Amino acid sequence: MYRSIGLIEVAGMTTAISSVDAMVKGAYVEVVNIERIGSGLITIIISGDLASVQAAVEVGIEAASSHGEVFGFKVIPRPSESLYQLYDPEQAGENNE
């Protein structure tokens, strides 16, 4: 089984950094990637246990909303190995429990 994944899509790097800062301070999660996807949109990808990811996404949305715009978010409780490899191929094999 793989660690849970959380995603938040925001507008602007300042909004993204504010969101990431709040998430890592508010819950025990790791930042997997911060992707610029074009037109100023940025997707933040985190991982950790389900409760921590859910808490971090909530805190991240709140922080991002106060600095900019949140376009979407998702928590994936049990991602398949192939999905995890898209975002973090180096760690995919190490996250089996």
From TrEMBL:
SMART domains: BMC. The keyword Ion transport does not apply. Keywords: Bacterial microcompartment. Coiled coil: none annotated. It comes from the Bacteria. Belongs to the bacterial microcompartments protein family. PANTHER family: BACTERIAL MICROCOMPARTMENT SHELL PROTEIN PDUJ, PROPANEDIOL UTILIZATION PROTEIN PDUA. This is BMC domain-containing protein. It comes from Saliterribacillus persicus. The lineage of its organism: Bacteria, Bacillati, Bacillota, Bacilli, Bacillales.
